[in-house]
Structures are given as structure tokens and as C-alpha cells.
Design a protein that fits this description.
The protein has 16 helices and eight strands. It is of the alpha/beta class. Among the domains are: 114-186, Four Helix Bundle (Hemerythrin (Met), subunit A) (Up-down Bundle), CATH 1.20.120; 204-348, Rossmann fold. Strands 3-2-4-1-5-6-7-8 form an eight-stranded mixed β-sheet, sandwiched between helices. The radius of gyration is 29 Å and the shape is elongated. Residues 210, 212-218, 243, 246, 354-355, 357-358, 380-383, 387 line the site of guanosine-5'-diphosphate. Guanosine-5'-diphosphate binds at residues 210, 212-218, 243, 246, 354-355, 357-358, 380-383, 387.
Length: 403
């Protein structure tokens, strides 16, 4: 009897060991193959996150992997790697789509967000009797779309006059009348080309300014893609040292299109990074240096000190060729207040309106151009890498009222 019990116990132990082995080996098989870079990442974690980290496991994941495999951590320690950035897997360089005609591609997105304005105006103008109440409704529609008080009054006056002269109106006549008047307000005479050339032997230098959160760093990255797509070589300057992730974010954008990013420590001096970026651009013989800046609206003096210093220091190499102000189109009046403050601090040469895909208030284009007297040069229509388009008034109006 004892022998039988002993045999049963032995059998159970054997079965237990075998099934444990099967579970362990199955778990090993299920684990996806490890990226070759994982080992250096484990042993020499970068002081701060670097681009390429996403491709390999995180430190937590790596440690878990070691424990599962059952290796003591010490045996997994490879020789020290001097530069973890170099050890990171190379990022595949993308070929962004050219900037010309992007607005046409993105027109559907623009039409979706701005349709209410255009369609609303056309419907009101099509009413048989255009009485005072209707004109007030037209005015309200324009004000709601952030066109601004003065441009709204001007537009309504012009429309009243032209509708009176026209007499009976066909929908086509109304559409072309409204098209002409909106285009006049949007100013087709502005030069909207983003200035990328210095006219000297040195790279064109562009600075991107704006309040944090408006999409400034994203826009700088997207702009680098636009420039590369249009055949220019770019060096990026990560002078937004205030927001912790900004430099990493910019570097990622740069690496995707093969543009080098000059960066410094978090909280470092933005002016010296901007200076170094231009120096690097000159040394590399790059076409354009694009500098992202921090936009803390703590006080106007603080902002003026910061941006003023960046500008002064950069201009030791030569004049700035373009200063782009990034504004979030969804912020309405707030955006206009920001525009005013920045315009007092630096000479803005162009405006970028971001998040136009997320607002029906496209009239801000008219209001902000009027406010600053400088053109909207680019608009952001989404979070995608190529969702930044040169602003073209005709394509914009056609998206509004259907062309
Ligand atoms: P920064 O602090 O001004 O540098 O802002 P970021 O560049 O980090 O952008 C803030 C957020 O706005 C991010 O989630 C971006 O993806 C988003 N964003 C930027 N531009 C656009 C745009 O045109 N459309 C949409 N929908 N989101 C955008």
C-alpha cells in the first residue's frame, strides 16, 4: 500500500514539473522578439528620454523580461555603451508630401468645419426679402464665426449695396458675389510665401513663436517637413527649454525627415541654443534654420526679455528672415489678445492658424490679419504629419461656400 501511495506521489510530482516547463516555454515563445537595442537601453538608460526609445522596451519592461527569462540581472549587463542615442535604432526617413496643393487635399476637412458659415450666409442671402432682421442675422453669423466687428460691418455694407444693385438674385450670382467680397476681406494681395532664404550665403533663419499649447512645436515639426518636401535642408533649434518634452518632440519630428536638432538641457538658455542652431546650420551649409521658442505669457516684460534675447543673439549671425506666430484658431478673442502681445515683442512676419479642423470660427483668419496687418501663411488642419497647408484664400473661400 505504501509503495502504491509513493508511486502516486512520484507520478504527481513528475506531471507537475513537466507542466511547469511547458507553461514556461510557452510563455517564452509568446514573447515577441526583442529589438536588438534593448540591451544597451537596459544598462545605460539615457539621462532623459531619447527618440527611438519607443522602439525598444522600457526599463520596466526590460527588467520584467529579465526576471521572466530567469537570468540574474548581473549576467545581462553588457559592456557600457558610450552614447545611448547612437545605440538607438535608426529612424526610417520619410518623404513628406509636397506642400503645393495640400489645401486642396485638405479642403474636405476645411469644408466640414467651416460649412456653417458659408452655407449660413448663402441661405440668408437667398431669402426673397432681405429685411433689416435678415441683415442682422447675416451680421450675427459673421460675428459668431470670429470675423471681427469692423470687417463684419464692412462686409455687410458691401453686400447690401451689391444686392441692391443686383435686384433679383440667382444662387450662382449670390455665390460669386459672396466669393468676391470674402476674398477682398481675406486680401489676395498679401505675399504669403514663407521666406526661407536669407539672400546671403548663409541659411534662412526662421523663428516660431506663440503661447505654449497652441501647437507651436508640432507646427515647427510639420513646417520642417514642408521645407524638406519642397527640397530644402533644415536644421532645427529646440529653444523651448521651458516645456520638458518639447525638445524630444521636435527631435522626433526632425529625425523623421532627416533634419538635425540642436538642443540643450531642460531649463537651459534658449538664446544660446538658438545661436548654436544657426551656427550648426551655417557649418552644415543647410538651407533653413528653424527655431522653436517657449511661449510663456507670464508677463509681457518676461516674454519680451526672453524672445528679445533670442532674437538679438540669433541676429549676431544675420537678420531673421521670418518670424511666424502660431495661434490656436479655437481660442477666438484670446488668440487676438495673444497676437497683440507678441506683435509688441517681436516683428511678426506671418501667422500660422492651427486647429482649423476643430472650429467653425474660420473668420479668425480675417480678424487676425486685420489686427496685425500681416498675412496668414499656413493653416493647421489636423494632427497628422502633413496636415499643415499653405494658406490660399481662393481654396479657403471655395471650401466655405462650395466652389
Ligand atoms: P506647443 O505647446 O504650442 O508646442 O503645442 P504642441 O505642439 O505640443 O501641440 C499641442 C496639441 O495641439 C498637440 O496635441 C497637437 O497634436 C495639437 N495640434 C497642433 N496642431 C493641430 C492642428 O492643426 N489640428 C489639431 N486638431 N490639433 C493640433
Amino acid at each position: 500500500m505504501d509503495i502504491v501511495i509513493l508511486a502516486v506521489v512520484i507520478a504527481l510530482v513528475v506531471v507537475g514539473v513537466i507542466s511547469g516547463f511547458v507553461v514556461t516555454s510557452r510563455r517564452k515563445k509568446q514573447r515577441p522578439p526583442k529589438a536588438p537595442s534593448s540591451t544597451p537601453t537596459i544598462t545605460t538608460p539615457p539621462a532623459e528620454p531619447h527618440v527611438g526609445d519607443e522602439a525598444g522596451p522600457s526599463r520596466e519592461e526590460s527588467r520584467r523580461t529579465i526576471e521572466e527569462v530567469g537570468l540574474p540581472e548581473a549576467t545581462a549587463t553588457p559592456p557600457a555603451v558610450e552614447d545611448p542615442v547612437v545605440a538607438a535604432p535608426p529612424v526610417a526617413i520619410e518623404v513628406p508630401e509636397p506642400s503645393a496643393g495640400r489645401l486642396v487635399r485638405l479642403r474636405a476637412r476645411l469644408a466640414r468645419s467651416q460649412n456653417t458659415l458659408g452655407k449660413g450666409l448663402l441661405t440668408l442671402l437667398s431669402r426673397e426679402h432681405l429685411d433689416e432682421e435678415t441683415w442682422e442675422e447675416i451680421e450675427d453669423t459673421l460675428l459668431t464665426a470670429d470675423v471681427g466687428v469692423a470687417p463684419t460691418h464692412e462686409l455687410v455694407e458691401r453686400l447690401r449695396e451689391r444686392v441692391r444693385v443686383l435686384g433679383t438674385r440667382t444662387p450662382d450670382e449670390l455665390r460669386s458675389l459672396l466669393r468676391e467680397e470674402l476674398l477682398a476681406l481675406l486680401r489676395t494681395d498679401f505675399d504669403r510665401a514663407v521666406k526661407t532664404e536669407s539672400g546671403l550665403d548663409t541659411p534662412g533663419v526662421m523663428m516660431v513663436v506663440g503661447v505654449n499649447g497652441t501647437g507651436k512645436t508640432t507646427t515647427t515639426g510639420k513646417l520642417a517637413r514642408v521645407l524638406v518636401a519642397d527640397g530644402r535642408s533644415v536644421v532645427l533649434g529646440a529653444a523651448d527649454t521651458f516645456r520638458a518634452a518639447a525638445a524630444d518632440q521636435l527631435q522626433t519630428w526632425g529625425e523623421r525627415v532627416g533634419a538635425r536638432t540642436v538642443r540643450g538641457p531642460e531649463g537651459g538658455d534658449p538664446a544660446s541654443i538658438a545661436f548654436d542652431a544657426v551656427k550648426e546650420g551655417i557649418a552644415e551649409g543647410a538651407d533653413v534654420v528653424l527655431i522653436d521658442t517657449a511661449g510663456r505669457l507670464h508677463t509681457k516684460t518676461g516674454l519680451m526679455d526672453e524672445l528679445g534675447k533670442v532674437k538679438r543673439v540669433v541676429e549676431k549671425h544675420g537678420p531673421l528672415d521670418e518670424v511666424l506666430l502660431v495661434l490656436d484658431a479655437t481660442t477666438g478673442q484670446n488668440g487676438l489678445v495673444q497676437a497683440r502681445v507678441f506683435a509688441e515683442v517681436v516683428d511678426i512676419t506671418g501667422i500660422v492658424l492651427t486647429k482649423m479642423d476643430g472650429t467653425a470660427k474660420g473668420g479668425i483668419v480675417i480678424a487676425v490679419q486685420r489686427e496685425l496687418g500681416v498675412p496668414v501663411k499656413l493653416i493647421g488642419l489636423g494632427e497628422g504629419a502633413d496636415d499643415l497647408a499653405p494658406f490660399e484664400p481662393e481654396a479657403f473661400v471655395d471650401a466655405l461656400i462650395g466652389g
